[in-house]
Amino acid sequence: MDNYTNQNTARRYVAHVSIFGTSQIHLRNPYIIAWWSAAFPGFGHMLLSKYLRGYVLFIWEVVINIKAHVNDAMILSFQGNTELAKEVLNTRWLLMYIPVYLFSIWDSYRTTVDMNRVYELANNEGHRYNTFALGALEINYLDKRKPSLAVMWSLFIPGLGQLYIHRILTAFFIIFWLVVFFYFSHVQEAISLLFLGKINEATAVIKPEWLLFIPSHYGFAAFDAFIHTVENNKLFEKDLRSHLKENYQSKKFRILKGQKVQ
Predict the structure, then answer these.
(1) Is the dihedral of CA 235, 238, 243, 244 positive or negative?
(2) Which among 31, 64, 49, 17 has a CA at the least distance from the CA of 173?
(3) Do 21 and 15 contact (CB within 8 A), yes or no?
(4) In whole angstroms, what is the distance from residue 120 CA to residue 107 CA?
């Protein structure tokens, strides 16, 4: 049940609240979105709430990266073993990897520019949107939350920040792939061995090609949680202003430009 159900009478909408999360359009910097797509294909689209496209690009990145040994080659090149890095690359998979990687960056930039234009039009139309959703599985509503807490929980375990602000789909996706990266990289085993002072064993047990996915994963989770907490807070304040103006402000109230109101 929603506290407001639109009849699709407007051409564009700014936000939608459902039991799975709050989706909204707001102004974004296309260069930042493109940068996240460069850091990890799919992240830029997920920031735009284009989840299906983001999930496809993310899974493609993981599968093709591992098959092409891109991360292995990166590690070897960082160590100065450029010749060995060339040998380890699987060109059959690499030639599929590069076009999709470039497409992810280009498409996220293009989509951000388009969505910024849509936001300007939707914001000017000022069509009403629901702010409360009640279902058999979940309850979601707009309210104010602390961005610092969203970042803090994301740094503990990526996905918890998204749960804090009720981004259920993104939270599930991030947590699931974090478990996959932890399992295949053996990073937790390596950390345990480091605490025991067994540095050589920790180095031997870890899988670098999977480990390289984790820093981007943590960074994205924290950034996504922070940005969407801030924007959800703005959406809540905007809705509250509209509610107070519509129900409590006098119809005769006018702000006279250039005159001081006593």
Answers:
(1) positive
(2) 49
(3) no
(4) 20
Q: How far apart are CA 256 and CA 16, in angstroms?
A: 34
Q: Which residues contact 252 (CB under 8 A, 6 or more apart)?
A: none
- Token readout for 2 is 């929603």
Q: List, in sequence order, every residue forming a beta bridge with 134; answer none if it has no partner.
A: 139
Residues 6+ apart with CB under 8 A from 169: 20, 21, 51
CB 198 within 8 A of CB 218: no
Contact 235, 142 (CB under 8 A): yes
Q: What is the pLDDT of residues 223-235, one digit of tens each?
A: 999 999 999 999 9
Q: Cβ-count burial of 221 within 10 angstroms (0-12 exposed, 13-18 middle, 19+ buried)?
A: buried
> For 1-10, 30-39, 123-132, 208-217, which range has the lowest pLDDT when averaged over its residues?
1-10
Q: Are 15 and 23 in contact (CB under 8 A)?
A: yes
254-260 contacts: CB < 8 A, separation 24 or more? none
Cα–Cα distance measured from residue 113 to residue 129, given in angstroms and rounded to the nearest whole number? 23
Report the SS3 class of residue 34: helix
Joined together, the tokens standing for residue 149 give 């807490």
Provide mean pLDDT across the span 179-205. 92
Partners of 184 in beta bridges: none
Helix ranges (DSSP H) in the chain: 30-39, 43-47, 51-68, 70-78, 82-88, 91-125, 147-156, 160-164, 168-185, 187-195, 199-205, 208-211, 213-247
- Model confidence at 67, pLDDT cuts 50, 70, 90, reads very high
